[in-house]
Amino acid sequence: MAALVAGGFTVDPPVVLAPMAGITNRAFRRLCREQGAGLYVSEMVTSRALVERHEATLDMVRFDDDESPRSVQLYGVDPVVVSEAVRLVVDEDMADHVDLNFGCPVPKVTRKGGGSALPWKRDLFADIVQGAVRAADGRVPITVKMRKGIDEEHLTFLEAGRVARDAGVAWVALHGRTAAQMYAGTADWSAISRLVDALDGFPVLGNGDIFSAGDALAMVEQTGCAGVVVGRGCLGRPWLFGQLAAAFAGEAIPGDPDLPVVMATFRRHAELLIEAFGEYTGSREIRKHVAWYFKGYSVKRQVRLGLANVGSLDELDRWLAHIDPDQPPDEAVMAAPRGRTGGERPPALPDGWLESPYLDAASAACVREAELSVSGG
Fold first, then answer.
1. Would residue 104 show up in a list of annotated catalytic residues for this protein?
2. What is the span of the domain harbouring residue 141?
3. Which residue out of 104, 225, 234, 366 is catalytically annotated?
4. Into how many domains does the chain fold?
């Protein structure tokens, strides 16, 4: 499998960690880098908050000294603000790569016309992407991550892909679901294949339902995509990146680790969080990962509750000592999707958003109010 080349760096294997709010902080990115190579993207950062130099947002674009390439994802709905954010990233050497978010399906984002709702407004989408590329001025690569569209009646991915390609982005990544689907059902890999064909040799990355190295190989074979973007599949399983590296190198794919290694990796994750954010915050951050790491294992309810309320590494160690390490996982449970699921639902949109694929006075006013002042999605 050929590597991805973008600007001054190469992504080999062509594997990208998808930005996930509250997950892909610098501690988790380091943990994943320790497992295998790839491009590890930060949590989604709001352009307005970055331009206004909000302290929490600036902390989110801090990278470890040995983290390379440094990758940040920006969210924004105002072409001027997004361009200012990109220029700030470049001028102050904050990152080596900027990804633009047009895939977030969260209601608080789409109801203001942002995220996966935004490509429906063709002129606005073009203005943002073109402005970001101009602001980068070739100094860092710009990429786009998007969904199929708002719903099956309002698909945007083919047109948006062409616009992004012509604007000069390095690649586009497509999640094979609509905003209405959220994370329900199965991803439509055929849409990725259609985009690959439509862009005729331009790099397209595939995203959606990659829970194993075998899934990644199957997606590439079925769609012809140039690489894969991995989100929920690595939750509680950072070793997936090592398996992906082996798969793309044509080597034997390592099996999943046994429970003692899972426990050690979980503890390492906690150590990195505490090192990055201090014991108080780091201990609370590891709590959300308990269910993912121990999915498919027999862990007593009292122990799970204890781990989900830890306040220190010492306390975490005491609870880990109560887990029987000599047990196999429940394979059926392990094979189930991780992270967010749930049923399809009508997306939250501004009033009249779907009446025209171009901005009018009402939708323009709504978009002006959509610049979130906080980051993380």
1. yes
2. 4-255+341-368
3. 104
4. 2
